Amino acid sequence: MSDLKDRLMRTMRANLNHLLDNVQQFEERGGFRSLLHPEPAPEAWENIGQNPGERPQPQPPARTDGPKTLRDYYANLEIPYGSDLATTRAAYRSMMRRYHPDNFANDPEMESVATDLSQELAVAYQAIESYLRTGRY
């Protein structure tokens, strides 16, 4: 069962990191402003005539185990950065239904993983909720 637990945790962390990287890349490209006023990317002109396989693939930045940021909390809840309170609440409730420890009562290892995950989700929801209500988290 520890293999299942490790696989589940690795998969969830990989998905959360991927979501966070996508949000950061979107904001680096200008966010919604770039959709309203698109400009050609300067590197796009350099790659004309090359096959897609010839270009080096960009690597995501290395994650550190430093203090959590607001982006990390949004990624934990698997919602886009800047979502409103209703979206945040719906995502939190959905994930808590899915990963509640009572759902894994027959398996003590998975129950402990679910307990840790539900605590992380609760912290993320409280941080985002306090930020949306007061402007601080």
TrEMBL record:
Residues 31-69 are annotated as: Disordered. InterPro entries: DnaJ_domain, J_dom_sf. It comes from Lujinxingia litoralis. PROSITE patterns: DNAJ_2 (PS50076). CDD domains: DnaJ. The lineage of its organism: Bacteria, Deltaproteobacteria, Bradymonadales, Lujinxingiaceae, Lujinxingia. SUPFAM superfamilies: Chaperone J-domain (SSF46565). This is J domain-containing protein. It holds the Pfam family DnaJ. Residues 72-137 form the J domain.
